[in-house]
Each structure stands twice: as C-alpha cells, then as structure tokens.
Design a protein that fits this description.
The chain is an alpha/beta fold. The protein has 14 helices and 16 strands.
C-alpha cells in the first residue's frame, strides 16, 4: 500500500494566506503550541497539487501493471485508488479533474490513467459509475463495454447528469463516487470519498455519522487487504461490500494507493479577526489533524506529539540565570520554579521543626495511648503419663483408676437405653430381610418393612415423651 499527501498551494488564493504546517523532507510539522510531527517513509510521498502530481507518484505503478496485464477475463490485478479530505482541499481536483461543471484539471489521476490505457494495445474496456449516499448505492452509469477512446467522453456525460448537487450542502460533498474500469484481467477503481466536515447548521448530523462509519469500515478493509489477512470485514457498509467482497482470492493481486488532500492555508485578514476575538488557534489545524491521523491509522505514517508534562526536574538550570531570562521571555517559554534535589532534605527538616514549635491549642488535653487488648491464653491440658516416685502420687492415681473402672462397669451392666434398643431391633429386621428371597417371599418382605416403619414411629413417640419404652 502506497500513501501520498497532496497539499493545496497558497498561490491559488486571491489574498494573502497563513499556514498551519511546515514541511521538512519527509516530515510534516504542525505550527501550534504543542506541535505534532508526522513522518513518512519517503520524501516523494508529500507533493504539491500541480500538473506533475500523477507523473511523480502513480504513473510508474500503473504502467507496470498495464504491461503485465493478460488477455484473460479472470481478474488477476485490482488497483484501488482512494482520495479523501475536506471539501476545498483539492481532492476531486487531483483525483478526477472534473465535476458536473466541466473539466478543471487535465493532469488529474483519472485523466492520466485513461491516457496510459490509450497508449497500450487495449481496444475495449468496461466502465461503471456508482454513488453511495447514507449507506445506499445509486447507479449513475451501469456496467457498459465501450471503446477505450470513448471512456473520457462517456465519463464527462456521467458527471454532467451527476446528482451530487442534490447531496451537497455548503459546497461540501456528502456522497462517495466510485468509478470502475475493467479490461484484460485488470480492474481499476477510483473512489472519491465524501468530505471530512463536522455537522453544523447546514450539514445534517445523519450524513456525517454515515460518512464516519464508511471511512472507519473502509480503513479496516484496506488494512486487512494490505496485510493479506484471510478475513476482510467487507459486509459492514455498502461501500466496502461493493469494493472488497469476493476480492480475497489468492490469485488476485491488490494494489492500493491512498491520497490524502489537505489545505493548510487560510485568509490572513479573516485570521486576524479570529485571533483577536477567540483563542489563538489556526482554524484549519483540526481538519489537518483528521486527514493526517487517518493516514497514521492506515499505518502509512507515524506521529510524534511534542507535548510533555511540565516538571521542574526536566528543565535546564541555566533558565534561571540572569543573562538567559530575557531571551527565554522573548521566546514565550514557561519558566517553572526550579529547586535543587539536595535542598529537599533541608526544607523537610525546617518544616518539621516549625511544626514541633507550634504550641497546642488545648494544653490540658493529653491524648491517651491506645490500650493494647490483652490476649487470654487458653489452658493447655496435658496427660502426664510418667509416674512419680513418691507414694502419695501413686495412691491418687490408683484411686482415679478404680473410679473410672467402676463407671465403665456400671454403664456396661446398666439397662440399654431406648436408642440402643432401637438400633438392635433395626439390625434384627435387616437380618430377616437378608434371609428372604425377593422373588418368592414378597409378602414377608412387605411385613418386615411394615415392622420397620412401626419401629420408627414408636421411636419418634419415645423421643417426644409419649412412651418410655419400645
């Protein structure tokens, strides 16, 4: 995937203008309080809107694909050229070169591609022009096979009856225009996307929401195709379904070119009135950020934000020098209070001494110390099995043994309790059940079960105190 930035030159305005960006080789610097730096891989990715734009950027790529085009009807190469930006930034001027009012730029991308096709041996081609507005597709020119020499004239006729004016407010494009050229196993698609404007009194909020959703879905599909993913999320929106559905075959080669158009200039007189009344900020800086950030989301550029948290430790010590202070103030730097780390201990000790010197407001009051709960240790009983040598201890132990033997004998010789009798009766009934045959003695088994039930009922009565014995 190749990405290019086209900026509108200042000589296209009648009055003097002020800019909000600065160029340096392959970087774009924004002119603001905390500037951002957008870095591209190559210097030729940043171009001025001129007659040399197509020849310097896309011409060599299109020629290589046209030379390798086969005569089969199977699509092997797909070229997708996407242009996006705000209205008035030169997007349609550089991409199509014409609109419903006529031809304005004969060196546009579309005109250059048509001229390159005419120079080859290709005689016939198929053209299709569609439009997407609020996620609904409208066919301007159905798929039609024509001669290559007539492509330019037919496209002029399509734009002449183009219904873009019905979907435009405040000179802003609100719909996506899709142009398809099919010939010799090659498909060239040129997409002129809608403007990146925010909703206001003259723009509907529903239109802006639909455009943002289309561009986000379009971004995901472009990244998936460029990274050669197996799954392309093409069914989210109508524009992605038209362009990327059934395009994930292994035999198809995708060539994607993204063109971001920006207009960083603004009228100087109008700019001065805005700066005097409101915050000193360039009116087009937000629009420039939207277009360049979209390129960073496509992994075509990287951005660096120079804003950092203001801390005293990161500032230089020479800022506080008397000779440097006038220079710093002239450059509108923020001078924070700088303190040396070695003095932190002295300051903390001084603060503690001052706090200790403060007399309490209520001198009679003395805070009591919190009482620590006393832990009560549980007595540990241990059985001392060792016999002492003294005779008194032997007599005591013998008496205890005799008493325990008497208690055990009395419990054994005593009559059984109702619970023990209940358990014994249950054991007898279980023995009877084990001796019976299930198939032959079913009545006897039922009688034994009835006895068990009666036994449990009587035990319950005993527990409740109705009977003394079972």
């Amino acid at each position: 995937m190749n990405a290019y930035v086209v900026y509108r030159p200042s000589n296209t305005y009648k009055n003097k203008t002020t800019t909000c960006i600065r160029f340096s080789k392959n970087q774009i610097h924004t002119i603001e309080k905390y500037n951002k730096i957008y870095t591209f891989k190559k210097t030729d990715q940043i171009n001025e809107s001129s007659s040399r734009f197509y020849n310097d950027t896309l011409h060599r790529h299109i020629i290589d694909v046209l030379d390798n085009a086969t005569t089969s009807n199977i699509k092997t190469d797909v070229i997708t050229i996407v242009g996006f930006g705000t209205s008035g930034s030169g997007k349609t001027y550089n991409l199509l070169g014409m609109d419903s009012s006529g031809l304005h730029n004969k060196y546009s991308v579309l005109c250059g591609i048509i001229n390159d096709i005419i120079k080859t041996n290709i005689t016939n081609t198929t053209i299709e022009v569609t439009q997407v507005y609020k996620n609904k597709m409208m066919v301007i020119q159905p798929e039609r096979k024509i001669a290559v020499n007539r492509v330019f004239d037919i496209f002029k006729d399509c734009l002449g009856c183009w219904k873009q004016q019905q979907f435009s407010t405040h000179n802003s494009s609100r719909a996506h225009l899709i142009i398809k050229l099919l010939f010799n196993g090659l498909e060239i698609r040129i997409i002129d996307t809608a403007g990146f404007e925010t909703p206001d009194e003259e723009r509907e909020h529903v239109e802006t929401v639909a455009i943002n959703q289309d561009m986000l879905a379009f971004k995901e599909c472009i990244r998936a195709v460029a990274d050669k993913h197996k799954f392309v999320p093409s069914r989210r929106r109508t524009i992605t379904r038209i362009l990327f559905e059934h395009k994930t075959s292994k035999n198809i080669k995708n060539h994607i070119f993204v063109i971001g158009a920006i207009d960083p200039h603004y009228d100087t007189i109008a700019m001065q009135s805005i700066l005097n009344n409101t915050i000193p900020k360039h009116p087009k800086i937000g629009i420039i950020h939207n277009t360049l950030n979209y390129l960073t989301m496509l992994n075509c550029a990287s951005v660096i934000n120079t804003r950092r948290p203001i801390t005293s430790r990161e500032k230089r010590k020479d800022v506080l020098h008397k000779d440097v202070l006038p220079q710093v103030k002239s450059q509108n730097y923020i001078i924070p209070d700088i303190r040396n780390d070695k003095n932190y201990s002295k300051i903390s000790s001084d603060i503690t001494e001052q706090l200790n010197a403060i007399e309490p407001k209520y001198s009679d009051y003395i805070p009591e110390k919190p009482q620590i709960p006393v832990k009560i240790e549980k007595p540990i009983f241990r059985l001392n099995r060792e016999r002492s040598m003294s005779g008194q201890n032997d007599k005591d132990t013998n008496k205890i043994r005799d008493m325990t033997k008497c208690i055990i004998d009395n419990r054994v010789n005593a009559e059984p309790t109702p619970i023990t009798r209940y358990i014994n009766n249950q054991e007898l009934l279980l023995k009877r059940l084990n001796t019976l045959d299930y198939n032959n003695d079913k009545l006897k088994i039922l009688n034994v079960i009835n006895d068990q039930q009666l036994l449990t009922i009587t035990m319950q009565m005993v527990v409740l105190g109705c009977y003394d014995k079972i």
